[in-house]
Design goal:
Blueprint (H helix, E strand, L loop, with lengths): L14 H20 L4 H8 L12 H6 L27 E10 L3 H15 L6 E2 L3 E4 L4 E4 L3 H12 L5 E12 L5 E10 L1 H17 L12 E8 L3 H6 L1 H9 L8 E5 L1 E6 L2 E6 L3
Antiparallel strand pairs: 1-3, 1-4, 1-9, 2-7, 5-6, 5-8, 6-7, 9-10
Length: 277
């Protein structure tokens, strides 16, 4: 509390008078506070923020957490005409497990020849942007399940040894909804090792009550796709397409997948899960 003191050079006012004046001023202040009579107190109360004046969350913060931001659209025009197998819901992450395949020049040349041959039969295929060998169906994970899911899968893969599998036989595949048709290469060696890895993946899927892999899987690497069911047209041209793959200077083309590290992709997040030595 501030107390007024007389100047040492002043000629009037005793210490008792100064102290009495200070006590009187303090009493008035307490009276104002107790009875809400202070104009300052009233002003502060009037300026207290309310929930109606809450500022919006900055866009830069929303972009840091996309699952809490704007909902994704299900429009097929944004996905090359592809249709979702399940409706998008905020917080749900489409998840799959696979081995990646890294193409080389010989593969790229063969794929171009295959697409041209198919186009001559009035079927237009779109090449895959990324090539992989699937070891799970596409399932839905909640965002907070992703870390526990990968943590459950990682120790199970340590007991699976690294290996190399190969594929060279062209096959036609169509999804269950008959909305997309694929041209792929079926695995010919390494199936036993792939089944061992699938067993480990299925154990984690079952732990999270998710759908396991197919009972009799046809392990393959998808090369290209188109919207709709064009199974018959592509199967009619399989013999011609297989000839393109087999008639090479160095012998039949063989696609090799180095199975060292499994990938788990959940939405826009990808996790590497190495196999054992």
């Amino acid at each position: 509390m501030l107390v007024g003191y007389s100047s040492s050079s002043g000629s009037s006012g005793s210490d008792e008078e100064s102290e009495a004046g200070a006590l009187t001023d303090n009493s008035k202040r307490r009276h104002d506070v107790d009875h809400g009579g202070s104009s300052v107190s009233k002003k502060l109360k009037a300026e207290e923020p309310t929930s109606e004046t809450r500022l919006p969350v900055p866009r830069c913060l929303l972009d840091m957490f996309p699952e809490e931001g704007d909902p994704q659209t299900d429009g097929s025009s944004l996905h090359g005409g592809r249709l979702r197998s399940f409706k998008h819901e905020r917080g749900n992450w489409a998840t799959c497990v696979y081995f990646p395949y890294h193409p080389h020049e010989e593969f790229s040349e063969l794929l171009e020849e295959l697409l041209e041959a198919v186009a001559a039969r009035d079927v237009v295929l779109t090449p895959q942007t990324e090539f992989h060998l699937s070891l799970s169906q596409t399932v839905v994970l909640r965002h907070h399940w992703i870390q526990p899911f990968t943590q459950s899968l990682r120790p199970r893969l340590v007991h699976c040894r690294r290996f190399v599998c190969s594929a060279g036989t062209l096959r036609v595949y169509c999804n269950a909804e008959k909305t997309r048709t694929f041209l792929g290469m079926e695995v010919s060696t390494g199936q036993a090792q792939l089944l061992e890895v699938v067993k480990a993946v299925d154990q984690t899927m079952a732990e999270f009550r998710l759908e396991t892999f197919y009972k009799e899987p046809s392990f393959h690497v998808s090369l290209a796709w188109c919207v709709g069911d064009f199974t018959k047209q592509l199967k009619d041209s399989l013999q011609e397409l297989q000839s393109l793959a087999d008639d090479h200077e160095d012998g039949p083309f063989l696609l090799r997948v180095d199975c060292r590290e499994l990938r788990c992709k959940a939405g826009n997040k990808t996790f590497g899960l190495p196999l054992g030595p």
